[in-house]
Amino acid sequence: MTQVYNFSAGPAMMPKAVLEQAQKELLNWQGQGTSVMEVSHRGKLFMELIAEADKDFRQLFNIPDNYKILFLQGGARGQFAAIPMNLIGAKGKALYLNSGHWSGMAAKEARNFCEIDELNVTEKDENGVISITRTDFSDITEQYDYVHYCTNETITGVQFKEVPNVGNAVLVADMSSDILASRIDISKFGLIYAGAQKNLGPAGITIVIVREDLIGKARQATPSIWNYETQANADSMINTPPTFAWYLCSLVFKHLLAEGGLDTVEKRNQAKAEKLYQYLDNSTFYRNYIAKPNRSVMNVTFSTDNDELNAKFVAEATACGLQALKGHKVLGGMRASIYNAMPIEGVEALIAFMDKFAKENA
């Protein structure tokens, strides 16, 4: 095994240059003779780090000035509860668009805190191919305080290629698995949230981008750790934050900016996905079950339609240095997560292995 490529859906691989810098600075950050993990989160140097991270992230993702960026804990699951506690207002109800497992989990959690309507927006045809059936909801959204959706379903590999039209309603998006994969118009959203462990950094920190006019409306019973106003006023530090994860995110932001920003990132991601999907479309051995207009650029799912062959594929791929290709237990099969940090060489190595495996097992 000469090269290992990590196709994990999360925690996912991080840019090699970022890990090398963290390794170099691990015992002596900013000339302090200590690790960044050992300094006060309220000290001058760490406060400068978080200010720089905010500035770099704004530049990278083109975040308008009227949005707050919160660096929180609890993962995306924590936000499943925090969002209704902070955003449910006079209308008393939210709409959840269900496109798969994680959007369904968000809806299930929200029911503990408010009334919701849940709308299934996918269908499966007679061949088992899944597609998104609707993206315009402007005719029904006036009755809701917000509309929630998941931009990219990590398990199935279903992705919204356009922002849903929700009229004047507040649009909330779980972007955990495709944030920073391409440019988007932030102004179309009231709130965006994402666990860091796919494109932003390591597990343990969660980013929330929230429009300022939506802050300060949390219900009285909202715990302070989930209250956006409390967190915004405290620089996301009402308690000790995950400082090392925050630091690593800051390095990722600088790394992506140095590479040319999201225009460069998007072109690279498109090239990787197109190469892998083209191979799958030309194969009679493997199948992808997502309609072409809704195929994820980040998570490519495929199967031999034989459980024993799938298990053999995963075992032999792992032995060849192609790690974490086993599909989620909800779906089975295989899944190649090709986030920002995955180089094109990793996709090419996967395709070469897939072709060899198909010839040997056809």
UniProtKB/TrEMBL annotation:
One of its GO terms (cellular component) is cytoplasm. Keywords: Amino-acid biosynthesis, Aminotransferase, Cytoplasm, Pyridoxal phosphate, Pyridoxine biosynthesis, Serine biosynthesis, Transferase. One of its GO terms (molecular function) is O-phospho-L-serine:2-oxoglutarate aminotransferase activity. Pathway: Amino-acid biosynthesis; L-serine biosynthesis; L-serine from 3-phospho-D-glycerate: step 2/3; Cofactor biosynthesis; pyridoxine 5'-phosphate biosynthesis; pyridoxine 5'-phosphate from D-erythrose 4-phosphate: step 3/5. InterPro entries: Aminotrans_V_dom, Aminotrans_V_PyrdxlP_BS, Pser_aminoTfrase, PyrdxlP-dep_Trfase, PyrdxlP-dep_Trfase_major, PyrdxlP-dep_Trfase_small. L-glutamate binds at residue 42. The modification N6-(pyridoxal phosphate)lysine is found at residue 198. The keyword Endoplasmic reticulum does not apply. Signal peptide: none annotated. Pyridoxal 5'-phosphate binds at residues 76-77, 102, 154, 174, 197, 239-240. It is found in: Cytoplasm. Binds 1 pyridoxal phosphate per subunit. Residues 4-350 form the Aminotransferase class V domain. Catalyzes the reversible conversion of 3-phosphohydroxypyruvate to phosphoserine and of 3-hydroxy-2-oxo-4-phosphonooxybutanoate to phosphohydroxythreonine. Belongs to the class-V pyridoxal-phosphate-dependent aminotransferase family. SerC subfamily. HAMAP family: SerC_aminotrans_5. This is Phosphoserine aminotransferase. It comes from Actinobacillus porcitonsillarum.
